[in-house]
Amino acid sequence: MHQNVILSTWLLDVFVKASLFLAIVWLGSLVLRKRSAAAQHRWWTLGFVGCLLIPVVSVVSPGWTPACIPAWMQIGAEPQVSTIANSEPPAVFSSPRNDGSLPFIEVRQQRPVVTRASRPPAEERGSSMPRGQESPGSEVAPAASATASLASSFAFSWSRMLVIVWGTGAGIILLRAVWRHWLLNRMLGRCTRLMDEDWIGLLSETSRMLGVRGRVQLLEHPEAHSPVSSGVWHPAVILPNDARCWSLERRRLVLLHELAHVARRDVLAQTVARLAFGLYWFHPLAWYGLLQMRKLRETACDDLVLSCGQQPAGYADVLLDIARSYRHQANATAVGMAHSSNVESRIMAILDSTRRHVSLSRTSARMLFAFAAALVCLVGTAEFQTRAQTPSSDTEKETESETQASDSADASLRDMRIRILDDQGKPLEGAMLQIGVWYAEGYDGYRTPKQHTADANGMVVLRLPKRLNILRLWPKQPGYVGQFKNFGQGTHREGELIPDELEFRLAKGHPIGGRIVDEAGQPIEGVHVRVKVDDVPGVSTWLTDSFGQPTVKTDSNGRWQLNNAPAQREKGTDWTFELKLSHDDFVTDKYWGESQRAQGVGTAELRRGAAEVVLHRGTPVHGTVVDREGKPVTKGWVVWSDEPYFNDGVFEAELQGDGSFRTPPLPEAEYPITIVAPGFAAQRRMIKVGSDSAEQPFELQPGKRITIRFVDSAGSPVPKVGVYLANSSASNTWQGSNALHNHKHPNVPDYGIPRQANEQGVFVWDWAPEEPVRYSVGAKGFARQEIALVAKSDPHVVTLASARVATGLVTDKTTGEPIADFQVMPVIVFRPNFFSTRYADVKQGAQGRYELPLTGSADPNDRYRVRFEAEGYRSIISEESFGPLDGRATLNAQLERAPARKGRVLDAKGTPVANASVLEGTPTWVPNTSNGEPSGFRERIGETDSDGRFELGATTEPVRLRVLHEAGFVEKLLQPEDDSVGELKLQPWAKVSGRLMRDGKPVGNQSIYFSALVNRGLGEPRFQDSYHAQTGPDGTFSFERLPPVTGSLRPYLGPWRDSPLTSAQSLPLELRPGERREVELGGDGAVLTGQVVATGRDEVPLDRQYSLNYLVSRDRSIRELPEDFPPLSFDPSSPMQLAWSLDPHFSDYLATREHHFVKLTPDGDLRVTGIAPGDYDLVIRLYEQPAGCLVETVGEKIVPVQVRGDETMDLGRIEVPCRAGPRPGSDMRAFEFVDATGEQQTVNEMAGRHVLMQVWASWCAPCLASMPDIQHTADDLAADAVTFVGLNIDEDSGQASRLAKQMNWSWCQNYLGEGSDMARQLAISSVPTYYLIGPDGKLVASATEWTDIKKQLAASLAATNE
Question: Domain 190-280+287-347, what architecture?
Fold first, then answer.
């Protein structure tokens, strides 16, 4: 009797816990109802697993006591019962626990009196009174035995009945399952192995698609059974007897569905669920859950099939036919493909385009498992008691508090204390600190908030991980100048060198402001004014909008003001403030300072509050978008830029409900207009915007489905591959544009283009355009790739190479012992002698071991070397390099001990200079400087101490050392064998100021550049310097920090950019330390005019704007060339020859002489101003209008010019003989090329076929951007009479050949090299260039734009086929 009571008590306890657990699972299923079927099915599976574990957890685990049920329902806890006269102590029974205690349940007829006593400790609960033994102090009445006997008898009957009923139900359920399993085994016994090679090959292919790694048997049943999967540990797919007659597509779909069951382990899930159901058969939620699992299982497998790139309609047809044609047999340990009872709902789900047919991600699976496990532990260990028993002891509370404190402690975190003060040292209470943290790879711990507020002491305490990649800090306070501090990657040893305490002192801000008006001078209210300031050390660039800075708009008078600008610079030119203005009714600035510069508004006007800028109305682009049936497209965007993501600003507007669109006002120009609408192929066209712009109608076509399967080198799926469009600033994603992108960023809309492959490694985009699209793909552990693909019916299979990772051992060269602490970093090899060290990707090595991902280049085909550095050792760069397919490579290194090289910096008077910046330029690391100061977040900048001293690590590379300070500049070349730097004496900066003039009038808002005469080349230690200034409204400019070297000063003027200048004077300067120089560019002097006429081209026009022309002085030049000036192939003292321009250092030679760049109009008119008297050579070099890169002139001439005063000289008509190359109708039959088979051919031998010649170079970005569409066109026209011929003009034909093979371009390639006869005959002036030759051997058309020649090809083919 006692055992029955114990068992029934335990069952009752489990029933209550299981009911609670199932109720929570059911509620969870409601929460997940909008999630994938796979997630819902996994949740119910975990629910049934939890039901099996709850009884075990109840027995083996320590308990906890929730006070959540009424006293009369107390189960599994010991009640405190007062003894009453003439009553017997309660008879109590329980199921045993691992600690020896018994969870009590009282069995009696009369309700006991329960006292509000605290629960005894666990060790006291472990002892219970044996039956018949009296407790101390208890009194037993003479009639007690009768009462006890009655109570025992009553308990016995209910307990036994409970056990019998439960056991009977469980036995029936389990016996039924055993019977079905026996039937399955009998069916398996009648099956035969399917050994057909086609089936076996298809099984292998589909297994790889789904990531099924184990062996799966294919069996054939002699009867017409529905396809099923069976086996928990040894899976098999059973097919009906007529499966051999199925089509290939049907075979693939059936195998994918059945293998989806195998991949998801559905047989195991079903077995577990049935076992749990057998134990909880009496519970309604168990019946409901089992039914849901059956439905969700099949839907999840359907989703998995579709996620592998299969067409929904075709799969639905196969599913319906299977359900109709074959009978379904229920099995305990097998799952079938189609059951007629639910096939209709499945087909509706398959065809529902709004559903996301996705599988369960690993992250989601882990989250569900963690939640279910916690739930099982929580419910299984509960010992329910009444609310009357809730008080816990002080000891329990203290223990809980200590536990929480212990859990919160994390050894991986640190505190960083930051004080924000004003410039007087007073705390700025309420100051805001904006932070940006780039966490170390794999870190999943605490993440500090992005915004913090300083307390009354100006203090902010940041909780940060000890290891991190980048930390950026922006402290700001209204009315003060915001600051910026960057701890860049590779500069702080993964956080080790970031200080625990930091102090900011914010200077009081100064006002700047102005007024915004329209063309009529009327104020404009509501103009959004964004302001930034560049190159102010330690000051935040952004004065508005970003990083907690204010948003500024103009008031009703058009006025705006900002009060957080830095003070005026103490010496030299003031800081440069740039505005970006936007308003819905006016033309918005596309670039920083666009309107401001065009109107000559500078810093002086902004500081006075008198900066008046005029905004123009412009013209919006408007139109309608419809589908091919004429119905409006209501969801989508119009984009008016080819770089909406990388350019700063808004370049998109949503389509309206009636399909109409309207852009903001745009200035008159030609714009690329792209319509992006989910479900439709994107459409792009160029539109000229003017005052008479008409409505633009767009008719969109349905998009095409593209499926990409990502596999590793073994053919196994690679899950969660990132797939990105427009991942670089080169506009080559689609049709020469990056308007089609899938970036997730608050500055751009989310078009809904997928960004990731699913768990099966399948990426599906249902509305891709017909043209090729370039994708950037990558996954953790794999190398990133750039691929251009076209939407087609069959999936693309892309094999990902393993990520390039260098690992190895770094030891002391003398002792052979591992070096305890060192750093490694990748070095990109762009081409021979062209390197770039990625200090931002530095990794710490320890105890001789390291692991370094070789990343950083935008081109996945670049190779990498490795740089090794350690304190007290000479740094080295590996000779070995690693390519895109090298994967994980072992690279060991030995470092030799070498002391640091010490130096000291003194000023011109011999006084030590503190806080000077020390930079190292090497062949593999080229630091950037701007106007005499280091620039860029990632520069490695050393600093002198208070005595002017510094140290440099020894290295195997030559080093060009440069020291920058407001007191001056010094540079020294160090060889690897030099063991000391010595003393360096600063040379004071030279200062140059002046004015830019044209025809006696100042020219404002123009860029002026200074360049050192010696530009060091690849393979040399060097710097990348920029010295620039902007002319004010009065044409003045100033350089306060120029190095005392020989160089040239010039305004910017080029052939492709509109400018108020028609010529630009370049002055050679030999600057001395501390020199102050005043110059005038384009000032007083003669004026030269004339017209350049291209002869020898008949009626073929030539736009002469595309030319490089110089008026070069014979008299005024550098008196003495620097010692390291590059050697020239000609004698510069002799008369100028056209051949000089072929010398690679011709531009360096020009910089030694005073000269004017001459900009021609399209008609060839020239006007050069400010020419000093003397003898000159006018060098004219004409080119065809390029679409990409200039290659060779079509005409050249040198005209001697003598200037004797300041009069105007007219050169009249200057005839330049020009080559025109082949023209439409020219006979091309004599041109030779090598075809795809390697045979020499002539165009004449291609009679009856079109020949398309494409001239390209590997260094030409527009050439490479057009390649995917050329490949797509060649594939599409493979059956047509068209031969594609590539003509490459690279100097290194081997490099071009390797690129063509790597990109798998299918058309024949001919490598002409530079200056070939064929290139001269074709008059190739720029690349890319295309020549279309007709079936008769005559030229149909030539063009520099691929889209133009593609249209010509389509038209010519259509005319030929008529």
Answer: 2-Layer Sandwich (3.30)
